Amino acid sequence: MKPSTKTLFALGCAYAITTASLFAQIYTFDEFGNSTGPGITPGVLQPDPSGGVVPAPVLVYTLPFAAITGDVVLLEPGSPANGQFSDVVRFWNPTGVNATQVIFYSDFSTTDPADSPADTGLPVNLINPVFINEVGPEGNNGALYTPPAGGPGSLPGAVGLQYNIISDVPEPDTLALTILSTGLLLFTLKRRYPTNV
Length: 197
Known about the structure:
By secondary structure, this protein is α+β, with helices and mostly antiparallel strands. The protein has helices at residues 3-20, 172-192; strands spanning 26-30, 35-36, 44-47, 57-63, 70-75, 85-92, 100-106, 130-133, 142-145, 162-166.
């Protein structure tokens, strides 16, 4: 193989690997700043780059590619379209180049006080919104979002791109209480019905 052919082959392979990395990818993020996925940064509190909630700082993640700007609105389970929503995930990339910021907004009220960094309120105006239903019991729910072509978070040419948006994470105290009560129940049952060996 000629040197120029080898170089073109190597560049072609590098391009294919880079392009393939955008296919069938799942990016996960939650209301506490935790994230997984190739190149996504953990969430940080900072002034709202889109001006959706002023002056409160908002939870912002960064994706390593230029996604389409817009909002994914999470509806409470059982709500009709444009019904009561609890969270808005905004993909923000007004320039269309390089990285995309993902802003996680979550509601709070006197009956449901702020308990996570994303609980800063909802934006007043929505941008190119897509409405999806949350799945799961209250306190441990979210949604798996596959962006439609041209929809918020979409990327031209990407196949299988998905976002796992975790709206409510079980609070550590609730989880610890569940584990403790299960352990006590098992201990009680073991004492009540001893094993005969």
